[in-house]
Amino acid sequence: MNDPQSYPPVFRRRRQTSNGTIHVDEGGGGGGKPEEAAAVPVIDLERPDVEKLREAGREWGFFRLVNHGVPEPLLEQLKTHAADFFAQPFDSKQALFSSGGDGTASYFWGTPILNSSGRTLDKSAQEINWVEAINLPLSSSQLPATCHHPSLQSFRTLVGEYGKHMGRISRTVADAMGKLASLECGDYVSEPTGIIRVYRYPQVPPQQPADGMQAHTDSSVVSIVLQDDQVSGLEFLKNDVWVPLEPVPNTLVVNIGDMMQAISDDEFRSVKHRVKVKKCKEDRISICYFVFPGEGQIMESSKYKPFTYREFQQQVQEDIKTLGFKVGLERFKRLPVDPPATKLTASLIN
Asked: Percentage of the chain with pLDDT > 70?
């Protein structure tokens, strides 16, 4: 069990009972039906099955990726370094990243919602998410000036190597899906926009149920998740049922983002997903890669008004600030065109 001093203070307070002990419930939460979880499409990146990929994009929005070419030792080293970082005292982690949030790496907790500079947008007590994370933009090889800790420098080297694999995989996936939709989807993958976020979902006491991450869609073209091998939690929505994506060693999970849905004219779906914190004796670590279009890239679609990714990002942030949640693609839907008869009737009346 991790030292409670490694958790952000609000998590420690919520974990304490009146006598100062910490409760751990060994039960687990469930999502959808086991057969649905087992049926999540599996795509072999070396020999992708076109029809299975089409089904994954249209019907699921998620799929598992095997034979992805990322060395297993690299995956294990990443998870080990991530766990070692999060095990440090909370104050030490904050001090290491005190100058973050300017496009370099940053440390945050309580919310997964960041602006383009890496600063958190919202951290209200009512909407606290049971998560802490580091945000690592791949376009910057720099850690904040305060981050001279040797373990972080070696971790950054591993992340850079992993990021190269993620760029290759995301472009391969986007190109393959583009061929299915007769589009050049790979043109919308801007590798310099790539971000890796490393999450820890601390253990949760039974008296304080919490979401690790609330239901949302990703704004990316595609997102790629390296799950914890031991602790589950990722769930996605299918036919109004939450389906758990149980961890499978040496596989990656790919989910389709809002930008892929837009440029494919809704051929492929960006589905809602969430992370439920399991009541077990282990924290959960996941490593997520997100890739976006360039900020000025125009999204062309018959279903949506033309917009740049910058405009989309600004609208999402405005909605979160004013409404408290992301509206997303609905903001950019084309208005239905009135049929000619309706227009003629209106002109006669006037």
From this structure: 77
Angle ∠(313,319,325) on CA atoms, nearest 5: 105
Q: Using CA atoms, how far apart are residues 176 and 160, in angstroms rounded to an integer?
A: 25
Mean pLDDT along residues 154-174: 93
Who wins on pLDDT, 116 or 161?
A: 161
Q: What is the mean pLDDT of the chain?
A: 82
Q: Bridge-partner residues for 298, per DSSP?
A: 308
93-95-96 Cα angle (round to 5) = 65
284 is catalytic: yes
Looking at 15, 64, 269, 284, which residue is catalytic?
A: 284
Q: What angle do CA 223, 332, 129 make, to 5 degrees?
A: 45
Gap between the Cα atoms of 134 and 216, Å rounded:
19
Question: Given this model, what pLDDT does residue 24 score?
Answer: 35
By the 10 Å C-beta count (0-12 exposed, 13-18 middle, 19+ buried), 198 is classed as buried
In order of 25, 76, 90, 162, 318, the CA distances from 285 in angstroms are 19, 12, 16, 16, 30
Strand 234-238 to strand 241-244: parallel, antiparallel, or no bridges (unpaired)?
antiparallel
Which residues have a Cβ under 8 Å from the Cβ of 201 and sit 6 or more positions away?
A: 130, 131, 212, 231, 233, 275, 277, 283, 284, 285, 286
- Please give the average per-residue pLDDT across 248-264, as a whole number: 95
Phi, psi of 316 (to 5 degrees): -60, -45
CB atoms within 10 A of CB 91: 11
Tell me what the mean pLDDT of segment 30-39 comes to. Answer: 57
